[in-house]
From TrEMBL:
Highest taxon, organism lineage: Eukaryota
Organism: Zophobas morio
Name of this protein: NACHT domain-containing protein
SUPFAM superfamilies in alphabetical order: P-loop containing nucleoside triphosphate hydrolases (SSF52540)
Amino acid sequence: MDDTVFDVDSQDVNLKGTYAVQLKYANTGGILTKQALAAKKGDFSVMKYFEEYRQKTTTVGTFKFILVTNRKFEVDDKELVMENDNVKFNVSIKKIKKKKKHFRFEIADTSTNALQDYENFFKNFTLVTNYGTADAIKEDIKEIFVSKFSCQDELISKNYIEFVRKWNQNTNSKTTLHLSFVKHVVALLILSPTRFLSFEPKPEDKKSKLLKKAISKFDVTCLSTESYLKIKNLWHCLKERQSVKDLEYLRRARQYQILGSSVNCLKDLNDEEWTKFLWLLGKCPLVVEDSEATRKAIGLCERKKFIVLNAKSPEGYSTFHNLLNLKKRKKILYKRILSTFTCSIQGKREISLGDLIGKGDRIVGILDVDKLVAMLDKALLIGKPEDLPPSPISRFLSRNIIKYDFLEEIDLPQTLVVFSCMSPITAFKNQFPNIETIKMEEFLTYEKPLIKQDGFVVLSQNDISKEQFATICKTVPRGHCCYHLRYFSSMNGFEWVRSSTNQNLHQFLLGGTFIEESELTRYEDNINLVCADPGMGKTTLAKTLKNTSAPTTWSVLIYVNNHSTYFRRKIDNVDEFKAYIAETIKSQNSNFDFEVIEALFAEGRVRYFWDGLDELNNDGFKTVKRIINKLSEAEDACHWITCRYLLREDLEEYFHVLSRTLKEFDEDDQKTYLKNRLECSELDEIFVKIRNNIRLFPHNDILGIPLQIYILTELLLRDRHKYNRLLDEIFSIADLYERFVEEKFYFHFREKEGIEDIENASDMIRNRYFNVKDKQLDYYKALAMRLYFDETVLQKYKIRREISTSKDPEGFITDVSDQACPKFFHNSFGEYLAAAYLAEHEEKAVHIQNFTFESKYNNIRFFFDLILAKKSPIHVAVLYKNHHLLENFPDEEFRNVDEIGRSVLKVACLWCERYQLVKFPVDRNLFVVKASPQFRHTKPDPEANRKILDLLLRKCDEEEIRQVLHQESLFHEANFIRVLPLTLLTKKTNIETKLFLKNINTLLRYCLHFHYEDLIDMFDQTEYWSNRFYSSTCIQFHQYISGQRLRRMAARRREILNKK
């Protein structure tokens, strides 16, 4: 290449203009002489170039001419004599100061007009010498790429030189190299190899069009490599729209050397070439990896679009990094994307991005383009749903239906009852003509509390939200009770929704009405309570509710026992608790998910699901209650609590709610479950066998409890022949758990050893199996003890606190919390294993404080007693409260004892209800029986307990009864006492023990409350009570129950007085 012409556009007038460059290189270099410059012909003849310049200026105008050579030029004499057209003149040669090898020429005598043309030429002529070798120039070009564009790759500068060489060789269609053209060429060289787009045909949906349009509004779009792979097909239709025979496109493609000279059709381009070509046309973005060189190359290209992969923080361009960028730039397009793109929080129902974002911009700023790409094919999943196996049976929960008598019994003037009428209001008025009603719209217009002598109820044709109810409650005088009920003309009662108190509601509850689990969230309030027996599926319900709760909220499922250490600290500060939970959530979610979660928390869009409150100690339980209450008040957050029945009364009283319970599987459900799980021809026979067992033990309804029917079917699936034999026997729930645990070990060991069965294996394998099983079982039992008992008990049993965090091979331990607390795959397995440990160390079990009185130990005790009663069916009958079966036992079996020597009477006493001791105010001889909150929901022992005790007192030896009566630990510990067995045994033996006499006031108080009329007679015969009773000046009963009951008690008192 020996001549080049280029234009320079600059604000510097001295630089602006057209430049013609003549290159004269010699492979061997050499010396440039003054004679060569003064010659009339030759490569360095100045006059030859003058003549060419003079000819060109007549057609193209003035331009600057530069002669460049690699020859050395050393000037001793600064004067040079030149001759042209018989004109001689002197020319001085001057070095340009900053450019030592750049020379300018000036005519010495400028007074002659004949030299004017020469003078104009020399003003625009520059000689450049000593320019170096070709290799040196290549190094210079390489250095320019390094310094200006941070390009360390030598290949880029070589490719640039090669591009210019090919351009120069193309003599037929050589065009002027404009600056923008060169910039694009340099950018492509720096950015190559680029990621190419795909042009395979693909249907284009609304979301793809919107995203493509959004990308086109920015210079740079930031994406990850993964996202690029998903959207590389977005521009596929562009290829189809280009005319493959368009000569102009062909010319431009060749100009950029995208097409070779032999290619005559655009369709012959591959995807990478197509991508570059369409980018040069401004039709699509160029996809490049982020780097410093990339950013500088992008700076060369105005009005071109780029997708930069894995960019950190590109600056200096309009950048599409997140939705906030789009909101500021194109608000209409932003809104269309919000309404079109969808997401799902924790796998719940899909919602639009607009619903996720809400009113603030916090989430907008963290929704980057990668997340939009993820939403092209499906909704973006934020957080993970709870894993739940498919259930073939719909679960049902109780509805709290209040009898119509409620309206007659309550004090309406002191009570506000608001009805959401699901049936026409006229139906309510017709059904209750004597009740004054006011419509909701009218009631809300009153500025002051509305008071009417006979009271009134408020009717709304629409359902009332919890927020509306809270507003209504503020309008009534302090001390008034507020109830929100639903009215259905087709029902036999009102449905309780919420209230400011649950006082007196239990006596009006109707049973037998249920709603399907899927409807439950329609009835949610701030505090929602579900109580059920172990194995009924409370944890599964909590997971289901979490997965199906309000789709715009974040659901937090808290297994409270995993956080027992925190709750034992008794810290109920809401902010501290939220910070603690946030750290737990953070460790379980990606950075993006956690940022969204933080935003949802900040906006109060949270639902809490609390599971297993019954697994906490008393201090931890109280802390959790306070935290729930404070969270509910501070944020109006919704809380679901699932726990066992033993906490029902406490939680209902504390939160002023009524609980729901899970309905057991009925016979149809049981058959459906068995059919889906077993799929065998003997299904009916199996069902009958199990039902026969249940009839023997009516409190052992294995089929009605989901976990237990699962265990049974799992055993039958593992070995149908073996466990069919079990069905022919009378088996307890402890037997079921024992076999399930053994089967787990059996199955895992066989799988690990690769053997069919252990019975036919070698002695060495069988011994190894038993050793491994016993060692692992001991480990599980120790873990279970650690889970349910405090440090004092662990030290007494010398149980180590170490716990392995590796995966449990048998699957009994599903997780270990950060506080090293094991989580069994169901709590009842932990309770069974703890009971098994205690049964092996029964001599120490009796020393565990409050073991037989604390309700939280009930399940462990039940397993413990069943294990010890394995060889005594009469004990099992007592534990399952089957008095009909008891009556059929021979008299001699009533003298049987269990594995630790306990009689059936002793075990029966241990399973009677325990009650708190009552403190009585005494004013001299005045004995006062007051109303007390502890009696409000206190219920007597179940009828089955009374029947069992009555039967045993008839069958057992009197000496045995006296021995049992004198064992105080059976009836009393700490602040609790077992009223029914103590009073019954006292009456039977006519022996007044110290325990009886010491607590006689408490015993009478409960006997009066429970209507134990036959036992009240016993107090009349008691010497202690007679002296105390008849020396009193009076006995005052405060009205803690209905007036009718109080009158009956007063009549009973007069009867006793008259008898005396």
